[in-house]
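Quick note —
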Amino acid sequence: MGDNQKAKRSVITSFFDDAEARVAFLDELADTGHEPEAMTLCLVYIDRFAQSLCWPSASTGRNFVDALIQFGGEPLMALAHPLQAARAFGAMKTPWKALAERIAGAFPGPSHEVVPIPTFEQALAEHVTTAELAQLKPELWRATIANVAYQHFGTRRFMASALVEESFSRRRHGMVSPYQSWGLPYLGTVPEAS
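Predicted structure written out below.
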């Protein structure tokens, strides 16, 4: 084995050794009563792996979903959730909103129903044109349970970044000390906001 191959193997081995340590930390978090934090951190780890596995694709949501379905070992993640599909396409630009309404019409309930993608496509075929179905197929990842997990992760990531940004913004404007912004005790004085 050449030096180049040895270097690559070393990097790969190191990466997976670190991954095993991360998984052990998730178990430790969950075992100490921090299940929500463990789940959020697990989603961060999956996202990081997904971006590496699906490189050079820059579609982070789709990368997450594709990696979870292809490598996650859980067939349920690949199922289509009609309510999720209607919500996802309803949140997109105008041409997709009408499609979202037809998806909702094709799947009247129950709202927790999940189906394999081919079943989803067959049921939808009666409500859309062949051209619309062809346009929809590359976007069906948005209808999956895996995307529900990604949206949950995205919401938490957004909320966390928004809170941190608000904290830094308040500090930049002299409204609170760094300690107060993170909820830590502070014994000094803080200038009043002007």
